[in-house]
């Protein structure tokens, strides 16, 4: 907006005025020393007084644009300076010396704080209040497993290869199959004998030609809990009860957008009511392969905290067990959809 930095400009003007003041002061001192008298002298005194006052004001208030750590002047005190108790402060009014009162016995904490245990009211704190098991309460297995961007590390699908050695010796005593993990060296092989004879199983070096490789893929746990915690199944009273509970909760909270089948979609293909009315981001298809391959903890995280355009449901589905039940039911929907990516 300005061609010149306004701070710099004003400070230039101030410096010029102060320099003029200094000159006038020197001139006044010189003139008084040389014995000047009369009208000139009174002008000089007047200007000196003006400039010195101005200099003193600038000296105290400073140049423009300068920061200061000093406490500001309050001619009328702000409200924050009124007399009050700060949290955890001390009070001489109450007999126990605390400024805050304890909650009424039996108060249910909103945020997981066990006030009663904090106050030493009971010896064994309720684990639900303390949320002592992060796997169950947050779906997080290893909170430190984060990518360079600070986002939870992607689940790692690890493929292991196992060699199976086959060898038959039809007229002798050899036959049989032995699974050979490629890492076991041949000298560690086991050759069981039965009644003094070799009966077959033998660890075969992988390099020998008859080895067949079996590939298996599994999900290595990183940030999210891989499998639904057993606590959830236990508390629900078994898988059947858990799934039933999950169905109720899913139909109540999720089906409105994702449809009772979980297939979501937008426009013509919309299964859920919101999708039908045109969201900018259509509700995801929760039975799609890319959701099937997510760890259970990640689904729990999506239900609790939301994801992208989807809001979190942690505050609505308040019971942790209900959220795990939803995860279990989503898995059932995926299975029912017929092409499970993970068996
Ligand atoms: C208000 C509508 C709405 C409701 C209700 C809703 N979702 Fe969603 N959900 C969405 C939308 C929209 C997306 C796509 C978000 C995106 O990609 O930005 C989504 C995405 C998802 C995803 C995919 C997340 C991913 O990793 O890409 C899952 C899983 C999911 N929802 C599960 C659920 C479950 C379980 C519930 C019930 C607790 C639920 N949603 C309730 C709108 C909803």
From TrEMBL:
Protein's name according to its UniProt entry? Cytochrome c
Domain Cytochrome c: where? 241-334
Cross-referenced PROSITE patterns: CYTC
GO-annotated molecular function? electron transfer activity; heme binding; metal ion binding
Residues that span the membrane, as ranges = 12-36, 43-63
Q: Which UniProt keywords apply?
A: Heme, Iron, Membrane, Metal-binding, Transmembrane, Transmembrane helix
Q: What Pfam families does this protein map onto?
A: Cytochrome_CBB3
């Amino acid at each position: 907006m300005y061609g010149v930095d306004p701070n710099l400009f004003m400070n230039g003007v101030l410096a010029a005025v102060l320099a003029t003041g200094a000159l006038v002061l020197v001139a006044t001192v010189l003139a008084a020393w040389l014995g000047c008298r009369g009208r000139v002298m009174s002008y000089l005194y007047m200007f000196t007084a003006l400039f010195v006052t101005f200099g003193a004001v600038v000296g105290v208030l400073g140049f423009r644009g300068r920061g200061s750590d000093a406490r500001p002047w309050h001619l009328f005190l702000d409200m924050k300076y009124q007399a009050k108790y700060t949290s955890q402060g001390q009070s001489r009014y109450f007999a126990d010396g605390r400024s805050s009162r304890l909650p009424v016995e039996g108060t249910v904490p909103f945020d997981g704080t066990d006030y009663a245990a904090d106050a030493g009211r009971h010896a064994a704190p309720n684990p639900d209040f303390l949320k002592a098991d992060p796997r169950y309460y947050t779906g997080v297995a290893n909170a430190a497993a984060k990518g360079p961007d600070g986002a939870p590390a992607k689940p790692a699908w690890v493929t292991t290869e196992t060699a199976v050695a086959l060898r038959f010796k039809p007229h002798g005593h050899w036959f049989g199959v032995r699974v050979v993990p490629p890492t076991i060296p041949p000298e560690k092989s086991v050759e069981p004998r039965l009644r003094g004879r070799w009966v077959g199983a033998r660890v075969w070096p992988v390099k020998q030609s008859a080895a067949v490789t079996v590939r298996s893929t599994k999900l290595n746990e990183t940030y999210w809990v891989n499998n639904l915690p057993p606590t959830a199944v236990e508390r629900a009273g078994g898988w059947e009860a858990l799934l039933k509970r999950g169905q109720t909760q899913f139909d109540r909270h999720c089906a409105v957008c994702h449809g009772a089948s979980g297939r979501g979609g937008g426009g013509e293909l919309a299964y859920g009511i919101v999708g039908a009315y045109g969201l900018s981001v259509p509700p995801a298809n929760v039975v799609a392969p890319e959701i099937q391959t997510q760890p259970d903890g990640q689904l729990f995280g999506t239900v609790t905290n939301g994801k992208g355009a989807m809001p979190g449901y942690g505050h609505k589905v308040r019971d942790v067990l209900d959220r795990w039940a939803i995860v279990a039911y989503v898995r059932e929907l995926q299975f029912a959809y017929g092409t499970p990516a993970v068996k």
